[in-house]
Specification:
Elements (H helix, E strand, L loop, with lengths): L2 H8 L3 E6 L2 E6 L1 E2 L6 E5 L1 H4 L4 E5 L7 E10 L5 H10 L6 E12 L2 E4 L13 H9 L2 H12 L6 E7 L2 E6 L2 E6 L7 H12 L1
Antiparallel strand pairs: 1-2, 1-5, 3-4, 4-7, 5-6, 6-7, 7-8, 9-10, 10-11
């Protein structure tokens, strides 16, 4: 297992998905159940024969993931609910979890299971988000310290072992933890540090 590789995947919310020879920008979330990236997809993308996901979309040292989309019911799946909390109503009605086969970045290479972003405090995430909702001013200051921009509206939409995802206006930004959190107590401690 590579914690650095897991962090790189968890921290990238935007990427480029290649389906056969076509490329499309995608916004992703990490499915809390499987630990894989997930996003809405067009029918022709799901019907392709090969797929790669490039994260982040604008970094020369990007991560390349060889993936296989597994379609899920967007009406009854945690990843689809999470995606809508992050980004709002999707453009496409179909939704897929992207099962990772390989991870490549520069001279690093891993099998998919080595980079799965496991969520050890998944059941405690809701309580942490509720705590963050009560600290909106602190959350706003933390976001503004990173972006150097004013954010009148902020809302924490996700917390994982590597950081906090915050909806700011029409987008989502990341507040990273200095070290991974392996349980809910560590996550609360890391959140406190980020908001201090």
């Amino acid at each position: 297992m590579s914690t650095d590789a897991q962090r790189r995947i968890a921290c990238c919310l935007d990427g480029v998905l290649r389906a056969d020879e076509d490329f499309a920008r995608v916004r992703i979330v990490i499915d809390p159940g499987t630990g894989w990236p997930a996003c809405p997809m067009a029918t022709e993308v799901l019907d392709a024969g090969s797929w790669s996901l490039y994260l982040p979309e604008d970094d020369p040292e990007f991560v390349q993931l060889t993936v296989t989309p597994r379609e899920v019911d967007p009406q009854n799946h945690d990843a689809a609910d999470r995606w809508m909390a992050y980004y709002g109503r999707p453009k496409y009605a179909r939704f897929a979890v992207l099962e990772v086969q390989t991870y490549k970045r520069l001279d690093e290479a891993y099998g998919g299971d080595e980079v799965r972003v496991v969520h050890p405090f998944r059941k405690g995430e809701g309580a942490i988000l509720k705590d963050l909702a009560a600290r909106t001013d602190d959350l706003r200051r933390a976001c503004e310290a990173v972006t150097k921009l004013a954010h009148p509206e902020v809302r924490a939409v996700g917390v994982d072992p590597f950081g906090i995802d915050v909806r700011v206006g029409l987008g989502v930004m990341r507040l990273e933890f200095p070290a991974p959190a392996f349980d809910a107590d560590q996550a609360r401690e890391r959140v406190g540090g980020v908001l201090a």
